[in-house]
Design brief:
This protein has a five-stranded mixed beta sheet with strand order 2-1-3-4-5, sandwiched between helices. Helix content is 60%, strand content 10%. It folds into two domains: 110 residues, abc type-2 transporter like domain (abc type-2 transporter like fold), CATH 3.40.1710; 209 residues, no CATH class. The protein has 14 helices and seven strands. With 382 residues, it is of the alpha/beta class.
Length: 382
């Protein structure tokens, strides 16, 4: 074994990196930018207000005491308490997003209190209920006269959409469908289209009467077919739960995640396919600027990762720093995740204005990148 030969190989790799400015940027600049973005979002994201709709029996002192405790408490989020007429109105406010929590106080002297949340954010609901319990302890022990004999009530948690025992997988399932499909379709298309260029197929097509727009649409349909199959597989695996019995030494197991969706699977498919078609056309567009498969991969931390941070996957858009919210509003993943959550978690259909907007934006983004790709492809062998 020769140390000089080993050093010569290492020197060749180092010289290759030194001449590749894009790779140097990926190694030194992009990690800093992504880390800075992540730290910015985590540190400067707003906690968000908690709006409480209270339904209390006439004459009950608990509601007033809770309101006073909320006004005096030093919490990470601002709490506002509004009285509503009846239980139905309180639930409607939670369902329509006009309140995060509804509190239903049935008796004059306490007893169990029903806490109603939307149910699409189990971790957030747990934090809110924990804060409410602390406020209730304060209200009963310090604000109500001891002679009333009111004990700290127990909370009975109910949800509007999902069950109260829904786990994180139920909530994150729309993210799986949206973000993963977008990620893998982008990789498939970008590398496949690059191979078409490197192999000279695109050059030969450009020498024919076929227009650039027809080439992009043709490639988009071809890649889109496999993207559609990928979406079908992903949706099927997410929603189904096929029980396989034990066979000999192999124990019983389940194929699929078995996530329940209260919305239409067909609408889920439409949203995911439109997002995938946008990823197809984005992959075609960006691959025209790459000469190697590594350069296609280098677009991932620049194009895909920021959408995971800003697309409403981990934090609601309205809690991002103000300067980042307009950026999030132009990202396709933002609209896909929003639409998938509306359908899977809230049961929205095509009559929902939010779903209509999500579909229109995703379709518009796909067409936008078709136009861009048509203008960037040119006659040259990469």
């Amino acid at each position: 074994m020769s140390a000089s030969r080993i050093l010569a190989v290492a020197r060749r790799i180092a010289q290759g990196f030194r001449r590749d400015e894009r790779t140097l940027g990926l190694v030194f600049v992009v990690p800093i930018v992504i880390t800075l973005l992540l730290g910015w979002v985590i540190r400067d994201s707003e906690a968000g207000d908690v709006r409480i709709a209270v339904v209390a029996a006439e004459g009950s002192p608990i509601a007033d005491a809770l309101r006073t405790a909320a006004e005096d408490a030093d919490l990470a989020f601002e709490v506002t308490v509004d009285d509503v007429a009846d239980e139905a109105e309180a639930r409607d406010r939670v369902r329509d997003g006009e309140a995060e929590v509804a509190i239903i106080v049935a008796g004059l002297r306490g007893g169990p209190i029903t806490v109603v949340t939307e149910g699409t954010d189990p971790s957030g609901d747990a934090a809110r209920i924990g804060a409410l319990q602390a406020l209730m302890v304060r209200a009963v022990t310090t604000l109500l006269p001891p002679e009333l004999g009111i004990a700290v009530p127990e909370f009975e948690h109910e949800t509007v959409f999902l069950s109260a025992d829904a786990d994180s997988l139920d909530v994150l399932a729309p993210v799986f469908l949206g973000y993963f499909a977008y990620f893998f379709v982008f990789i498939l298309t970008g590398i496949s289209f690059l191979r078409e260029r490197v192999g000279g197929t695109l050059e030969r097509l450009l020498a024919t009467p076929v227009t650039r727009g027809e080439i992009v649409l043709g490639y988009g349909l071809g890649f889109g077919f496999f993207a559609t199959l990928q979406v079908l597989v992903l949706i099927g695996f997410t929603l189904m739960a096929l029980e396989v019995p034990a066979i000999g030494p192999i124990p019983a197991f389940t194929i699929g995640l078995g996530v329940s969706s209260i919305g239409s699977p067909a609408l889920l498919f439409l949203l995911a396919v439109l997002l995938a078609l946008g990823a197809v056309n984005l992959g075609i567009f960006l691959s025209t600027f790459a000469r190697t498969e590594l350069q296609v991969i280098q677009f991932i931390p620049v194009v895909i990762v920021p959408q995971g941070l800003l697309g409403g996957i981990f934090w609601p858009i309205d809690r991002l720093p103000d300067i980042l919210q307009p950026v999030a509003q132009v990202l396709p993943v933002t609209y896909a995740v929003d639409g998938l959550r509306e359908v899977m978690l809230r049961g929205a259909d095509l009559s929902s204005p939010s779903v209509q907007l999500d579909l229109a934006v995703l379709a518009g983004i796909a067409l936008f990148f078709v136009a861009l790709a048509s203008r960037t492809i040119k006659r040259e062998v990469a």
